[in-house]
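Propose amino acids for all 284 sites.
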């Protein structure tokens, strides 16, 4: 699948027409935000420190989902700074909590206040967006000269298993369901290899001082709870597509709840780059 997303179908329906698989409208989305924050907020805040985020900075959090990162940015930039948190569905964000909330589609809408942000950040967003090139160009266009873009996305194809050690039936079943979930993502336009392309994508967007690192959670309660919330979130889609059966899903969730599995996630690739101080970057 190329960077424009898949063209397959699930249940006879075109991929691009079916929307974001892990939408914010369900209660499970809130659970997922809690456990994603537990797993990755420390990683993200470490990158903010690396890039020198400080009082007075203007920051745009793209596809924020939950409030954790906007709150952390607001605490860092203080009253002299500004944090904008956007999402296509900002229902889980709280306006007036130190940051501004706007509804925004990074792949379709123009950049807010172009050329003004010291930091633009997106985590686990672009991997789900069929027009990733357009979304990335929008974020770059929002940077001031010298501003930093930090993009963090999964590379599911780099490590596709739920259980690294297939020691029994429960582990094999977990990996089968992870494969089914990956198929759903592909049919919705997700790019399972996107994470590894980030350094090149940032360089091709005209950024300099590009670097990257990876994070790879293995096991523990947060991985378990994220897995359970994700499977419950997409259960209907798995059944409708014929990719799983009720009994299979029930057995998997029971094994997760019993703590029988050493679950892991796809590697999170974090890449960052800076807009050249003397270069004008047009929205492409």
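Proposal:
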């Amino acid at each position: 699948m190329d960077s424009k997303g898949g063209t397959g179908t699930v249940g006879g329906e075109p991929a691009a027409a079916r929307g974001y698989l892990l939408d914010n409208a369900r209660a499970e989305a809130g659970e997922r935000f809690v456990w994603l924050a537990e797993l990755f907020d420390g990683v993200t805040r470490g990158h903010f420190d690396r890039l020198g985020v400080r009082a007075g900075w203007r920051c745009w959090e793209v596809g924020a989902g939950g409030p954790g990162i906007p709150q952390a940015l607001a605490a860092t930039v203080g009253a002299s700074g500004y944090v904008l948190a956007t999402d296509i569905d900002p229902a889980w964000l709280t306006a007036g909590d130190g940051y501004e909330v706007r509804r925004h589609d990074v792949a379709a809408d123009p950049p807010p206040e172009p050329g003004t942000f010291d930091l633009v950040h997106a985590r686990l967003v672009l991997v789900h967006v069929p027009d990733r090139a357009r979304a990335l160009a929008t974020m770059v266009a929002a940077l001031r000269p010298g501003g930093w873009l930090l993009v963090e996305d999964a590379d599911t194809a780099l490590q596709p298993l739920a259980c690294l050690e297939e020691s029994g039936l429960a582990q094999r079943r977990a990996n089968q369901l992870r494969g089914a979930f990956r198929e759903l993502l592909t049919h919705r336009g997700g790019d399972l290899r996107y994470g590894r392309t980030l350094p090149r994508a940032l360089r091709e967007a005209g950024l300099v001082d590009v670097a990257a690192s990876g994070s790879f959670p293995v096991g523990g309660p947060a991985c378990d709870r994220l897995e359970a919330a994700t499977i419950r979130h997409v259960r209907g889609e798995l059944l409708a597509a014929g990719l799983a059966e009720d009994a299979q899903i029930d057995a998997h969730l029971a094994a997760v709840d019993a703590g029988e599995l050493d679950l892991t996630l796809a590697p999170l690739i974090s890449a960052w780059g800076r807009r050249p101080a003397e270069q004008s970057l047009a929205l492409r």
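Residues 26 and 233 are 7 Å apart (CA to CA). Residues 1-17, 280-284 have pLDDT under 50 and may be disordered.
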